[in-house]
């Protein structure tokens, strides 16, 4: 199995990207990794792993590039060439920590949308206090969604949670402004009715304040609401950890308490670390496309590659296609 990786995407490229790829190649003997980007910058970080190859490109899609225009004009960019490796069948999946919009465009225009899928969805797995985590989609691939799209998101999230995350009977929740059945706007009300008609384990509406409690294994939303919720969670977490750090370094007594609590705090940080869950999968395409966080370190890239590998091993794309045909 070959996995293509954009070595030039993200804040710490190419060094951390290559280190993560080396970790993955050493851990998973059944994969080969193709690093795509400026070979002169990549090679110094590659240390003799025979299952890692490099494809040279001389263009990079930058964070501030307009996504669709960049994908169409920068044909020799690391991201576009990565997507082409998948399209041509030389790679089974691809990963980038680069421009999110451009990756979605490359996924849609190059890798291609899967038959039967109306709208792709961007789906990270977020940590929860019970340690289980939950799949959240859509968090920005499409700001608007019809009720039928939300129903498809639920099905795709169900397949991923069951086959990759090992949840036997994933609980599906619909993000809403209240838990009562008739809450929300016309889109969520209609989506609620459609989800009730499926064979999925739909538990009803869920509120944003309960997401990190582990109320559901899969939460579906339109890309606007999902992105707002995601950014709020990220911002709140950063603020809390910053406040905690400030408090525990505010004096001698606080520093002594911090020293005692250090192992517990490290465990808490690990439990809530996004990198342990991989990247955000772009569901609804012909192959697994993973968006790693822009600030990904080697550990985050390792887990994104692990995630892509598991999606291929468990044939998530084929299973989604089969489920859609049965629906």
The shape, in one word, is globular
Largest sheet: 7 strands, mixed
Number of domains: 2
CATH architecture label of the largest domain: 3-Layer(aba) Sandwich
pLDDT averaged residue by residue: 92
Strand order of the largest sheet: 3-2-1-4-12-11-5
Q: What is the chain-wise order of helices and strands?
A: EHEHEHHEHEEEHEHEEHHEEHH
Pathway: Lipid metabolism; phospholipid metabolism
Subcellular location: Cytoplasm
Subunit structure: Homodimer. Probably interacts with PlsY.
Keywords: Acyltransferase, Cytoplasm, Lipid biosynthesis, Lipid metabolism, Phospholipid biosynthesis, Phospholipid metabolism, Transferase
Topology:
Layout lengths: L1 E5 L8 H13 L4 E6 L1 H4 L9 E5 L10 H7 L4 H10 L5 E4 L3 H13 L8 E3 L1 E2 L7 E4 L9 H17 L7 E5 L10 H11 L4 E6 L11 E3 L2 H26 L3 H20 L8 E4 L5 E3 L6 H16 L2 H11 L1
Parallel strand pairs: 1-2, 1-4, 2-3, 4-12, 7-10, 8-9, 8-10
Antiparallel strand pairs: 5-11, 6-7, 11-12
How would you explain this protein's 3D organization?
The protein is of the alpha/beta class and about 325 residues long. The protein has two domains: about 1-115 and about 285-325, Isopropylmalate Dehydrogenase (3-Layer(aba) Sandwich); about 120-280, Isopropylmalate Dehydrogenase. Helix content is about 45%, strand content about 15%. It has eleven helices and twelve strands. The strands form two sheets. It has a seven-stranded mixed sheet, sandwiched between helices. A five-stranded mixed sheet has the order 6-7-10-8-9, with helices on both faces. It is globular, with a radius of gyration of 20 Å. The mean pLDDT is about 90.
């Amino acid at each position: 199995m070959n996995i293509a990786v954009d070595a030039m995407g993200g804040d710490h490229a190419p060094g951390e990207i290559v280190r993560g790829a080396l970790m993955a190649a050493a851990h998973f003997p059944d994969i080969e990794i193709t690093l795509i980007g400026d070979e002169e910058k990549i090679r110094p970080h590659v240390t003799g792993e025979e299952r890692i190859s490099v494809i040279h490109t001389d263009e990079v899609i930058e964070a501030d590039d307009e996504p669709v225009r960049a994908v169409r004009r920068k044909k020799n960019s690391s991201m576009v060439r990565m997507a082409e490796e998948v399209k041509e069948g030389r790679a089974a999946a691809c990963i980038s920590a680069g421009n999110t919009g451009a990756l979605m465009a490359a996924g849609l225009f190059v890798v291609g949308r899967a038959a039967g899928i109306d709208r792709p969805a961007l789906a990270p797995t977020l940590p929860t206090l019970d340690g289980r985590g939950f799949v959240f989609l859509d968090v920005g691939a499409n700001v608007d969604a019809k009720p039928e799209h939300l129903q498809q998101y639920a099905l795709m999230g169900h397949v991923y949670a069951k086959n990759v995350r090992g949840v036997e009977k994933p609980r599906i929740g619909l993000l809403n402004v209240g838990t009562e059945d008739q809450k929300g706007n016309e889109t969520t009300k209609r989506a609620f009715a459609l989800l009730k008609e499926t064979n999925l384990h739909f538990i009803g509406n869920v509120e944003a304040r309960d997401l990190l409690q582990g109320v559901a294994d899969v939460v579906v939303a339109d890309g606007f609401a999902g992105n707002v919720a995601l950014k709020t969670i990220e911002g709140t977490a950063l603020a809390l950890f910053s406040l905690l750090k400030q408090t525990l370094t505010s004096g001698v007594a606080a520093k002594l308490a911090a020293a005692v609590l250090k192992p517990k705090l490290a465990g808490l940080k690990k439990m809530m670390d996004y990198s342990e869950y991989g990247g955000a999968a772009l569901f609804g395409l012909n192959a697994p496309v993973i968006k790693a966080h822009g600030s990904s370190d080697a550990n985050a890239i390792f887990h994104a590659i692990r995630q892509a590998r598991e999606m291929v091993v468990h044939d998530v794309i084929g299973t989604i296609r089969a489920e859609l045909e049965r629906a």
